[in-house]
Amino acid sequence: MFGKNYIVKHWQIYSMIVPGLLFFVIFRYIPIIGSLIAFQDYNVFSGIWGSKFVGFKHFENLFMYPEFLRILSNTLLISLYQLIFGFSAPIILSLLLNEVRKMVFKRVIQTVIYLPHFLSWVIVGGLVINVLSPNYGIVNELLSYFGYEKIFFLQQPEYFRSIVVVSGIWKEVGWGTIIYLAALAGINPELYEAADVDGASKLRQVFSITLPALLPTIMVLLLLRIGNILDLGFEQIYILLNPLIKETGEIIDTYIYEVGLLGFQYSYTTAIGIFKSVIGLILIVGANQLSKKLTGNSLY
């Protein structure tokens, strides 16, 4: 059925996948060749094939770097907070919106929470800086109104991770909510009607009908998030980061930018990139197998 003749007959349909394939080949697979410089003392003028091979020298330097453990722990902690709070926020919000019966109100809320997704982190970062400003920020104005001292939020390390997580939730919660609402729309309404007849409360319906129906979608998105646990998003952190909060705010991506692009240590930062990829691969394969055993849902 799916032999050569079938493909020739429906070549118009198959041709639609060509742009996607070209994108992955050109921008994903061909650049993998550049990973060779992680095992070289790369020289721009000598090129990949002319640079000296040094084996695992740059990987050894990575693990011997005294600040690497701090940078890795910062990355993992912020990722963990985003996973706990940022991942659960759209699930909770979608469950609440699903109970709204006034469609006009529901659509307005969906639009309002979805709009920040289209803003760049440059704009969002500027909004965060202005809102938390000690001079004219609305948060500090409210603190002063209630008799509290103003807080320099973006100059104190203990607040930085919370600011990153909250601003990330504000920007992306709408996108996740749309996905879960689409999954909720596919649930058979007769299940809820039967639950009402049996006297099940709304809370019981959520745990017995809604969440089990959402589980496949939740697991797929969770597995994708776990695979990118070391990729926090350079833009958000870099815009909010400053020397006073570098102790708790510097992550792998900002370190790569400073050392690799500004410091011209291309081989060293490529080794860091390979380290991130290997960790991500191990995490997603392990989490996928665990999910398959526990829930029966997996990516493959």
Provide structural commentary:
This protein has a two-stranded antiparallel sheet with strand order 1-2. The two termini are 24 Å apart. The longest helix has 31 residues, at 68-98. The model has no long low-confidence stretch (mean pLDDT 88). With 300 residues, it is mainly α. The chain is globular and about 75 Å long. The chain contains 15 helices and 2 strands. Helix 7 (121-131) packs parallel to helix 12. Helices cover 69% and strands 1% of the residues.
In short:
The chain has 300 residues and is mostly helical. It has 15 helices and 2 strands. Helix 4 crosses helix 15, helix 9 crosses helix 11 and helix 14 packs antiparallel against helix 15.
Secondary-structure map:
Layout lengths: L3 H6 L1 H5 L2 H12 L10 E2 L10 E2 L3 H8 L3 H31 L4 H12 L6 H11 L6 H8 L11 H29 L3 H9 L4 H26 L6 H7 L5 H4 L2 H11 L3 H29 L6
Antiparallel strand pairs: 1-2
Helix pairs in contact: 4-15, 5-9, 5-11, 6-9, 7-12, 9-11, 11-15, 14-15
- Average predicted local confidence, pLDDT: 88
The major pleated sheet works out as: 2 strands, antiparallel
* Terminal Cα span: 24 Å
Number of helices: 15
Q: Secondary-structure element order, as H and E?
A: HHHEEHHHHHHHHHHHH
- The strand order across the widest sheet is 1-2
Radius of gyration: 24 Å
> What low-confidence regions span 5 or more consecutive residues with pLDDT below 50?
none
Fraction of residues in β-strands:
under 5%
Helicity level: 55-70%
Please give the number of β-strands. 2
> Structural class from helices and strands?
mainly alpha
Specify the overall morphology. globular
